Amino acid sequence: MIVYLHGLNSAGSSGKAAFLRQALPGIDVISPTYPAHSADLAVARLSNELSRLLRERGRPDEPQLLVGSSMGGFYGAWLAQRLGFHHLVMINPALQPWQLLQQVVGWQLNEALGLGYFLSSRMVSDTRRYHTPAEALAIPTTVLVDKGDELIDYRVAQEVYGGRVTMHCFEGGSHTFEHMDEAVAIITQIHQSC
Question: pTM of the predicted model, to two decimals?
Answer without folding.
Answer: 0.95
